Amino acid sequence: MTDQPLLNEIKALIKASGPMPVWRYMELCLMHPRHGYYVSRDPLGREGDFTTAPEVSQMFGELLGLWTASVWKQMGSPQFLRLVELGPGRGTMMADALRALRVLPPLYQALHIHMVEVNPVLRERQSATLAGVRNISWHDSIDDVPEGPSVILANEYFDVLPIHQMVKGENGWHERVIEIDPNGKLQFGAAAEPTPAFDVLLPPLVRAAPVGAVFEWRPDGEIMKLATRVRDQDGAALIIDYGHLRSDAGDTFQAIARHTFTDPLKAPGQADVTAHVDFRALARAAEDVGARVHGPVTQGDFLKRVGIDTRAAALMQKATPEVATDISVALKRLTDTGRSGMGSMFKVLGISEPRLTGIAGLSDLEHAGGNR
């Protein structure tokens, strides 16, 4: 790839200002106003770089629609509800959720749909997918969504929020950075001086990590916004992403292009760069602002609890043998725990206002924040 304007710009920034923190590099790769990965293309599906759960099967979005209905009932069936989706892809999940919700006319009439999306290409796809849906609007940020009782859905949203990476040295934890090697290529390095007193903030498990270990963390701002919103305005948020249940050391910074892992430093802006989500950190931050936390549980467990096996059986009963096979394959992909399945790698976390003591699919297990 000879035409790499973002790579050239990043190198110029490093030459002018010194090594670049990983969080800043990730931010530029994804959100650069001209060359950022998420502002210039449709990355989804077979022709793109990766496939998300809503693209695997209609069952995923339908069940999230029914989950929304159960939360609405627990809220007392308000006559007005904002249904918000963060990073809504092609609009597939929302379309499937709304189709399921049409069986509940009082809720369907109460809905105002809010799509939080910065990518103009995907906004067009969403608009086409959701043509005919009333009371729908688009926003650049959750901050722009008007106040009111809300159900917020965030599928594969937190994994692309920029991470800080820290490397443990002999004398403390150093910010991991991107620098230029003698051959003019990007490489990882570490800030010369350690971050003062960083280990005071760390869980004991991470504090005991060996020299050379990498620890990743995200600022709490985004999760605290969601938690504060549902705490104060009534409602719940559902977060689905790949990640881990406990805060631990480990380097999960990765890039995917054409459904294959690639070097995250090779072609900035031309591959999807992500990192695993620390669900314990999300739960802790939500609790710290006074929201109630539900889960997390694995995606496979969540989908089974909210009825995916029953839904798959109903769909297969009416389908041709070929389509029934496709439904069975999709069910395994969404719920299986093996390498090819999403069932255990992906986790589901609920956050609600404190009065909602139980939420479908989540509330009968201890949550991650409960034993910290």
UniProtKB/TrEMBL annotation:
Cite the Pfam families for this sequence. Answer: Methyltransf_28
List GO BP terms, alphabetically: methylation
Q: Which UniProt keywords apply?
A: Methyltransferase, Transferase
Among its keywords, does the record have Magnesium?
Answer: no
- Annotated GO MF terms: protein-arginine omega-N symmetric methyltransferase activity
- SUPFAM superfamilies cross-referenced by the UniProt entry: S-adenosyl-L-methionine-dependent methyltransferases
Under InterPro entries, the record lists: NDUFAF7, NDUFAF7_sf, SAM-dependent_MTases_sf
Its domain of life reads: Bacteria
Gene3D superfamilies documented for this protein? 3.40.50.12710
- Could you identify this protein by its name? SAM-dependent MidA family methyltransferase
Question: What is the native source organism of this protein?
Answer: Bradyrhizobium sacchari
